[in-house]
Amino acid sequence: MIAVDGPAASGKGTIARALAKHFGLPHMDTGMLYRAVALNLWRWGGDMASEFEALRACDVAAVDPDDPELRSEAVSSIASRISAYQSVRSALLDRQRQFAGQPGGAVLDGRDIGTVVAPDAAAKLFVTASVEIRAKRRVAELLGRGLPAHFDDVLIDIQARDERDMSRATAPLAQAADALLLDTSALDVDGAIAEAVRLVEERLAVR
Ligand code: CDP
Questions:
Q1: Nearest 10 degrees: CA dihedral of 91, 70, 194, 26?
Q2: Is the pLDDT score of 150 beyond 70?
Q3: Distances (CA, A) of 117 to 21, 30, 100
Q4: Is the CB of 165 under 6 A from ligand 1?
């Protein structure tokens, strides 16, 4: 079981998918669970300031995983607000633990995989990059998906989201004590993937 955590747009999703492919493991992007709840709540006109309404939105059977809106900054921002609710996190935890505990292992990426979802993971990475680089990458990603994006707005959104994710009381974004830090600021995609594979292989070898 490999845990990949990190702040917004750090490249953890790309790295987690590549690790899954390299090691032949299934992958779960746990941010998509929170995004699906956020989109559900938004579509149905629910109030994100209400924990009760956010919890009702956890019944996400109606969300299409390929909906490009899931990646929009509006949905990202709602996701980071509703993810602070203890009841929302509990409602989504079982699904993540089951996926993490499947025989043969899995790769999960998110904010609290190494600290809460799978504290016994065989290898943990904490992926980060400077906030300017993360904002630049997110703008390119959004434009590539046909969604609107402006650097200044994205930078502010990312900073606000990191702040909320790090300061919430329940399962805050944090590097687990036994997680290996991977700063991708100076690395391109292939370089970041190669470094992630090297770190995980090194960690698995000493176990
Ligand atoms: O792709 P990006 O890093 O921007 O975001 P994401 O991983 O899709 O997560 C969206 C939001 O969901 C985050 O800002 C967190 O507030 C929340 N989240 C969380 O609380 N716990 C997780 N394990 C994953 C995401």
A1: 50
A2: yes
A3: 21, 10, 8
A4: yes
